[in-house]
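S1.2 Input.
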Amino acid sequence: MIPKELNEKLTKVGRETSAGALLRQYWQPAALLDELEEKLILPVNLLGERLALSKDNSGNHFLATRISCPDERPSFHPNNVKLDPKGSSYPAIEKNGVIFAFLGEGVPPLFPNFDCFRAPKSHSFAFKGFWECNWLQALEVGIDPAHASFLHRFLKDEDPKDSYGKQFRDSTSGTQIPMTKILRDYPRPAISVEETDYGLKIIALRHMADNLTHVRITNSIFPSAICIPMSKEMTITQWHVPVDDEHCYWYTMFTSFDEPIDQKKMRSQRLAEHTLPEYLPVRNKQNNYKYDSEEQKNLTYTGMGLDINVHDQWAVEMMGKVQDRTKEHLGRSDVAIVRYRRMLRKAMAALESGNIQELPMQTSSTDKIAGPLSNDAIAPTENWKHKSESEDQNRRSRCPWDALVEI
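S1.3 Output.
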């Protein structure tokens, strides 16, 4: 449990708030490149500000204050947009299909050398979706390794050959065991957390028979992103970006270490669950997420379809627009959430004291940060760490683009 005042401090994102000021010191996804194409000006709602994305005469992206209607919905994109000549302007840059903007003070930080930024466009794909909740609860579901065994439980296993573009539907590295079976059979992982120069490395160990352990490595990238394995050859880097205090977008960059991504197929899969131009989810509170009791009996834990984003959406939206943490009771499986909140509070205190250099990834060496390791592997229990790292290195050594890192 945390006091009401602290919960508000962690969740409010206006320019004069502690969390809002911190988030503004990092590059934040503002739009997909697909949204801007064929448009001169694109409305963007970000961190409680009504902005517009455009290009200058040199072709550089920038974000600027816009003139908008006072009753405008958080996700509404009007047809006619005007820039405020007296407003603020912010730098923006495109990275593999996502346009990032910096709304903070001083010189923008360097981008880390993460896989999602290093990969060529042929091995990357970007998408986003709108959720009706605060950014923090959206992030925290992603740094809880235990929830996948329940919220994303599939009662039937799919042929891994049909798993392309789907989370948790592939087999585990080095085996033919479907991820869905592992998550279902071993629902109580032993979870540990290590602090890193980018945030947190989260280790979930599911001890199996015959002295084997399933190792799942995920990451919390400070302040508002995660990096998790999607399949044997693909990872997901996902940001949870505040529209305002009560709404957010998730932006995902998919990165392939093997074959080029079938971007058309990936987009088609996701557009089946979203409507344009606002990337609103087809399944939502208004239609009860298209809950199906027969599906829940025979196929999925939630009865809300096969897209795990919908499962997460239901979980975080049902907490309310802003989760009431004054009544929560965290347990052993919430260790990553506890460590992340400590890191968040420490960073906010440092920023309030004017010590920006104490924030993660705010130094001149940030561009040297590579990776991160993010994979699934089955290993001998006594040697799980080496096996996980060697699986990652083997994948990188076979990669057609330069994905090599030092460990």
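S1.4 Remarks. The first helix runs from residue 4 to 11.
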